[in-house]
Amino acid sequence: MPKDPAPQDEPVVEALVEDDRFGEISVRLDVVRGEVVVAGERVPRIEIRRAEGAEMEEHIPVGTRDGALLTLTVDGADAVIEPAEGRLTRRSFRVDVWYGEHSWRLVPNSTGDSGLFRDATEHIGDFSSEGDGKVVGEWREDAEPDALDAAFGYALAAAFGTGAESTWLLTAGAVGDFFV
């Protein structure tokens, strides 16, 4: 299970990130409405929204991992978002996106960060966010990310948080919950 997000003093968090390759990027998280908006002069506007009236799961910044209850747009054009259920493995906390001719996947690397992959195989960067709307992104030296990569990386990290416990810790927690 990923770490619980940091407590929210305010339901809306707006943060400016200075990305080494893409300049200033705005990340806005509204936990009550279930919205994430990422924008910048050099990246497209990404919006992830939870369906109005959908129940909010407090441990997920955008409020749900049910793809049927989420919409994703890139500069107003629809994209497909499919978060996995998040169960007993780090990989089960992945989030997949399809837009145009490409796909992206954000998947936990460790307890604190997640890797961003383009087209399933190209590891282009790593992101960390504790679920509080503040995101740190680092591009791999050998990668050539583009503006869509940046926008998706920051948006997915803000919407779902990053990282997950190891399989054995997740399993131990699930077994412990069974006996409580």
Low-confidence stretches: 1-8
Distance, first to last CA: 17 Å
Taken together, the total number of domains comes to 1
Radius of gyration using CA atoms only:
15 Å
Number of helices: 2
Major sheet details = 11 strands, antiparallel
What shape does the CA trace take? Answer: globular
Q: Nutshell version of this structure?
A:
The protein contains two helices and eleven strands, in the order βββββββββββαα. The protein has helices spanning 147-160, 167-179, and strands spanning 12-19, 23-30, 35-40, 43-50, 70-74, 77-83, 95-99, 102-108, 113-118, 122-128, 136-139.
Characterise this structure.
- The chain has 180 residues and is an alpha+beta fold.
- It has one domain.
- It is 15% helix and 39% strand.
- The protein has helices spanning 147-160, 167-179; strands spanning 12-19, 23-30, 35-40, 43-50, 70-74, 77-83, 95-99, 102-108, 113-118, 122-128, 136-139.
- It has an eleven-stranded antiparallel sheet, covered by helices on one side.
Question: How does the SSE layout of this entry go?
Answer:
Elements lengths: L11 E8 L3 E8 L4 E6 L2 E8 L19 E5 L2 E7 L11 E5 L2 E7 L4 E6 L3 E7 L7 E4 L7 H14 L6 H13 L1
Antiparallel strand pairs: 1-2, 2-3, 3-4, 4-5, 5-6, 6-7, 7-8, 8-9, 9-10, 10-11
